[in-house]
Design the sequence.
């Protein structure tokens, strides 16, 4: 009886001890599972994200360092000269006075007589650099101001005028020409030309000075364009004779 | 008769069972510890690497901020540089498409025989077409003009040419209207041909 009783108790003891045997592995499994879900997976994802960020940041740092080095090594005087050249050829504002002054002086050099100009400057560019609504652009993206000019002269003189216009600052292009043979006062035949001219200007870029933007060195083509700009003649007298903003003391007098 | 009491050693069996249980338990604990160690061998480096990367990112961000500060000191210089670069960029495409008006006029003049007189030259349509009106004294000079124009088109001096009008006056002179196309404006030319039925050279 005793033995039978003893043998009946054995399985009960075994069940209890089985739980005891797997208790610690079970706890470990739960801990591992929880750590994996709550810590390891998020941290793993964070590691991947940080690695990506770090790579991007390092590339950005290299670009910024190169840009800082480039800026530090720029010749300030040369840059000032280039700015002056660029502004003379392609001003950042509507070059009304400069163009008229330059066209008039070039006409004198070519020997043609300017009978008259007609232009509608329209709204002037704002200080913020935003283009006014009435501003037109050409195919190259340059802003243009149209000028109708009537000039008198023989063909050679008009051809010479067209030549000098090509090398005039601010940039001017002949977009229309009507050449008519007319009789002058002395009875000689001469040519009258109605020129449609476009004077160009370009507003400063809106994305100026972004630190993340790389500073590309001037290409050979850009250097050639600078050379072209330096060859332009500015025969205006804006700086020398432009009236100061002092107002008139006598509004009815000249 | 000797009565023998059966000797059943229950403790011996229990000891064996318990010994097996202890062994199983030890194995379980050992396995759990091994798993935990292996897991920690992965877990701890991941956490440390995460911390290391975080420190690296902060360090690079600090350097970036320093470089941005340096660049900020050169803001005015950069503005000027970008301004020049932008204007030169705009200038490039302009110069590529710019036409030499004088050369075009001279090309037109070389087409005209001595016995022709020009009335007007219109150079418009943003420099793509030249409209010439003039008078040819005789039919022979007009024929020479047509031949010259045909030759100019054949040599590529002009893309297309068409006489928009030709009329003979009372004194035998020929008034003509000639359109010379500097670049291909196919649609416009074809439209004119369809509408006016003019002679296309």
Sequence:
């Amino acid at each position: 009886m005793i033995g039978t009783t003893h043998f009946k108790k054995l399985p009960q003891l075994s069940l209890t001890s089985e739980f005891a045997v797997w208790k610690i592995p079970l706890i470990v499994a739960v801990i591992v599972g929880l750590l994996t879900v709550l810590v390891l997976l998020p941290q793993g994802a964070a590691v991947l994200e940080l690695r990506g960020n770090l790579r991007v940041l390092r590339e950005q740092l290299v670009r910024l360092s190169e840009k800082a080095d480039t800026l530090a090594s720029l010749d300030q005087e040369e840059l000032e000269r280039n700015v002056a050249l660029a502004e003379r050829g392609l001003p950042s504002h509507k070059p009304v006075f400069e163009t008229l002054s330059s066209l008039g002086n070039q006409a004198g050099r070519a020997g043609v007589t300017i009978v008259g100009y007609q232009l509608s400057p329209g709204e002037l560019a704002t200080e913020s650099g935003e283009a006014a609504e009435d501003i037109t652009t050409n195919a190259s993206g340059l802003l243009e101001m149209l000028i109708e000019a009537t000039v008198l002269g023989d063909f050679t003189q008009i051809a010479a005028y067209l030549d000098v216009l090509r090398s005039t600052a601010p940039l001017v292009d002949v977009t229309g020409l009507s050449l008519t043979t007319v009789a002058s006062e002395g009875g000689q035949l001469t040519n009258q030309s109605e020129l449609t001219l476009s004077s160009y200007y370009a507003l400063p870029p809106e994305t100026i000075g972004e630190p993340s933007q790389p500073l590309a060195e001037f290409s050979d083509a850009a250097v050639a364009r600078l050379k072209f700009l330096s060859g332009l003649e500015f025969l205006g007298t804006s700086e020398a004779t432009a009236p100061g903003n002092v107002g008139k003391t006598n509004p009815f007098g000249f | 008769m000797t009565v023998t009491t059966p000797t059943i050693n229950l403790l011996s069996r229990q000891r064996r069972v318990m010994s097996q249980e202890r062994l199983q338990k030890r194995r379980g604990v050992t396995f759990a510890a091994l798993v935990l160690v292996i897991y920690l061998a992965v877990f701890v480096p991941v956490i440390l690497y995460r911390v290391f990367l975080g420190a690296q990112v902060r360090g690079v961000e600090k350097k970036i901020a320093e470089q941005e500060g340096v660049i900020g000191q050169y803001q005015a210089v950069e503005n000027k540089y970008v301004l020049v670069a932008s204007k030169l960029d705009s200038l490039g495409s302009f110069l590529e498409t710019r036409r030499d008006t004088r050369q075009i006029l001279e090309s037109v003049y070389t087409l005209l025989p001595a016995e022709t007189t020009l009335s007007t030259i219109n150079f418009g349509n943003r420099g793509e077409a030249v409209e010439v009106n003039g008078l040819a004294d005789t039919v022979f000079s007009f024929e020479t003009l047509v031949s010259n124009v045909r030759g100019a088109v054949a040599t590529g001096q002009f893309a297309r040419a068409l006489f928009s009008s030709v009329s003979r006056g009372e004194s035998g002179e020929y008034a003509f209207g000639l359109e010379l196309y500097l670049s291909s404006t196919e649609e416009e030319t074809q439209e004119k041909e369809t509408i006016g039925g003019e002679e296309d050279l």
Chain A touches chain B through 90 residues (CB under 8 Å). Confidence is low (pLDDT under 50) at residues 1-5, 8-13, 238-243 of chain A. DSSP finds six helices and five strands in chain A. Strands of chain A lie at 113-119, 136-137, 143-153, 172-183, 189-201.
